[in-house]
Amino acid sequence: MSTASPDTTAEPEGGEELKRTITGRLLFFYTLGDVLGSGIYVLVGLVAAAVGGAFWIAFALGVSVAAITGSAYAELVTKYPRAAGASLYVNKAFGSRPLTFLITVSFLAASMAASGSLAVGFASYFDTLWSGPPALLVSLVFVALLVIVNFIGITESVVMNMLMTFVEVGGLIIVLIIGIVVIFQGDADFGVLTHIDTSGEFSSPALAILAGISFSFFAMTGFENTANVAEETVDPYKAFPRSLVGGMIVAGLVYVLVSMAAALTVPTETLASSDAALLEVVKADVLPISVDFMTTLFSVIALIAITNTTLVTIVTQPRVLYGMAKEDVVPAVFAKVHPVRRSPWVGLIFSGAVVGALLVIGTLVTEAGGGIDLVGRLATVTVVLLLAIYALVIVACLKLRGQDEDGPFFRANTPLLFVGLVGNLAILYFTIYDDPHSLIWCAGLLGVGLVLFLAEYFFGSRDRSNAVEPGTAVADKEL
Amino acid sequence: MHVIVATDGSKQSLAAARHLKSFADPLKITTVSVVAVIRPYAAVAFADDLTPRKAPKADLESLSFRDAADSATKVVAGVFEGWGPKVQIRIRSGSPATEIIKAAKQADAGLVVVAAGSRGLSDTVLLGSTAQRVQHSAPCPVLVVRPAPRKPKRK
Question: Residue B122 has what pLDDT?
């Protein structure tokens, strides 16, 4: 199936009519921006606590599994360049509506949990700039603002996305420079980089590293959102493998170097106990610039990075709901777009409300002595759901071999795909084993999807018959 | 004269196209280009409110923003069928205002027709609608077709 061909043959005279704007380079920055913002700023502390000084190994292995999964996505996206992403691939491979529904809802739930985790991470960095307002309020206002910004449509600027990605990379480069300075000053103890902490919760090095991969994996997610722009990508056959897998490899390299720099600069215990761990690196006062200034600058950069990634997740949720409403599996209101702003406002408000509810419930549980770290818990929920989806996408990729291969498409390395599949399942198994309570949260979020489905199932026939008429009614009013 | 008619898939953009046809002289117009802009980074890259839903159920295959843009432009282009001028369809992607202006420059257009604004609060409170940006930087005159007032009680 090649989607581009009908348009191409319709009007052969010029490329202008099918002008696509997402070039390989833009796609690369989109991937990098999506991946880098989620996690490294938020989760370094958790990972360092689990592994010890050698936590860069966890990032290296985690990103490898993610990059392999990315290659499966690249293969499928070149075969089916549509925005629906994982749901479409699973539907193609298994043809089971319930399974497709489950995957779509899981993806939605993962995206909501990710927004929640990022919003809490935003609040911890915000706290270093202005510690007045309570964290819950900051994260709620953050989500509300992003919903409004999304509604207005400022987020659509391609240039803005690129600038934010530059800022994101800039922040990590600051960490790298600090690490290099430490090395040149001769203060670096390279022994740290091979130190795996087996005195704590995890008795064997392998287990400690697996825990580190599991905790760091949130930082690898986000690349699946690139399917969003599949339809608008110039020459997806070339662009996707290069930009998606290339973006993941660059992100992985940055992660490994940043982890090493952080481990060399700051004692692992300090990183482990910090809410905004990378900030500790800047606070180590290595550069001949005022610590106060650097701290503020770095916090602002971290806030921008987190915002960039959260924006993409908050764009994704109403889009998934929109697609599901078009398929009649959730109520049709989610397919409504604002007549002027062209934004799916019901879906946006709904997504914002669910993320807000997650934040409120999470904070209440934490305060009631639930003893959880909200960033970590929501990140774990995201990771559990996404790992299941990733594993299934790899299976779908293998199953769809030999089908729909008439157009040019990218073929991922098969042995690597099997390695990736095993990797995803191993991390999934460990994550659930380590934190079985996260399943309750997953179930709760999937329940939201079920409620929407039931609402459509029982009341759906009403809005289905209305589906055409409200349009005409609006037309009469508008004209 | 080459006229650019922009559509965002809204009913108002169809009204704008009809408005142009209601008064313009087809003999003075050589070509009408119907332009739709897909916004790849937006939650809904293109929503088509113009094509009536034929199939009771859309499946994942048919969820294509490009197809939505394609069918919406065809509905708007249908307004000018048999009117005289040559009718073209242009689907672009990016930021709507920028792409409409680019299309106007490339076609050396003599007029750009856009729909604009709601009547409500959002128009006054929110900044920078596409129509405002187009009329600010278009290389030619711009016809902004606004919705009719809800109740015509001026006096």
Answer: 52
Indicate the average pLDDT of chain A: 83
Range(s) of the domain holding residue B121: 2-145
* Higher-pLDDT residue of A391, A197: A391
Q: How far apart are CA A74 and CA A415, in angstroms?
A: 16
Residue A427 lies in a domain: yes
Residue A82: which of B49, B63, B147 has the nearest Cβ?
A: B63
Residues in chain B: 155
- Cβ of A11 within 8 Å of Cβ of B89? The answer is yes
Answer yes or no: is pLDDT of A2 > 70: no
Task: Measure the N-to-C terminal CA separation of chain A; round to a whole number of Å.
Answer: 40
* Residue A2 covered by a domain: no
Please count the structural domains in chain A. Answer: 1
- For B:27-56, CB contacts with A below 8 A are 38-47, 49, 52-53, 56
pLDDT band at A34 (very low <50, low <70, confident <90, very high): confident
* Residue A65: C-alpha distances to residues A115, A237, A450, B70 (Å): 22, 22, 31, 38
Task: Select from A84, A328, A478 the Cβ nearest to the Cβ of B147.
Answer: A478
- A185 or A61: which carries more pLDDT confidence? A61
Check residues A383 and A374 and name the one with the higher pLDDT. A383
Q: In chain B, which residue's Cα lies nearest the Cα of A156? A: B41
Q: Please report the residues numbered 114 through 133 in chain B whose beta carbons come closer than 8 angstroms to any beta carbon of chain A.
A: 117-118, 122-123, 126, 129
pLDDT (tens digit per residue) in A130-156: 888 888 899 999 999 999 888 877 666
State how far the Cα of A325 lies from the Cα of A321, in Å rounded to an integer. Answer: 6
Which of A301, A348, A305 has its CA nearest to residue A153? Answer: A348
Q: What is the pLDDT at residue A156?
A: 64
Predicted confidence at residue A14, as pLDDT, reads 35
- CB pair distance less than 8 Å for A161 and B49: no
Residue A475 within a domain:
no
Domain that holds residue A266: 22-465
Where residue B93 sits, what CATH number does that domain have?
A: 3.40.50.620
Q: Which residues contact A22 (CB under 8 A, 6 or more apart)?
A: A30, A158, A229, A232, A233, A234, A239, B40, B93
Residue A8's pLDDT band (boundaries 50, 70, 90)?
very low
In this complex, do B53 and A468 lie within 8 Å of one another by their Cβ atoms? yes
* Structural domain includes residue B151: no
**Is B155 among the domain residues?**
no
> Are the CB atoms for A121 and A375 separated by under 8 Å?
yes
CATH number at A217 reads 1.20.1740.10
A470 in a domain, yes or no?
A: no
ipTM above 0.90, yes or no: no
Q: Determine the residue among B63, B71, B151 to mutate to test chain A binding: the one whose Cβ has the most chain A Cβ atoms within 10 Å.
A: B63
Collapsing DSSP states into helix, strand and coil, what is residue A401?
A: coil
CB contact under 8 A, A157 and B41: yes
Of the candidates A232, A337, A478, the beta carbon closest to that of B38 is on: A232
- Does the beta-carbon distance from B66 to A231 stay under 8 Å? yes
pLDDT for the residue A475 = 35
Q: How far is B1 from chain A (nearest CA, A)?
A: 20
Residue of A nearest to B11 (CA): A475
Per the domain annotation, does B20 fall within a domain? yes
Number of compact structural domains in chain B = 1
Closest residue of chain A to B116, computed from CA coordinates: A340
The amino acid at residue A130 is: W
CB pair distance less than 8 Å for A327 and B63? yes
CB neighbour class for A424 (10 Å; exposed up to 12, middle 13-18, buried from 19): buried
Residue B136 lies in a domain: yes
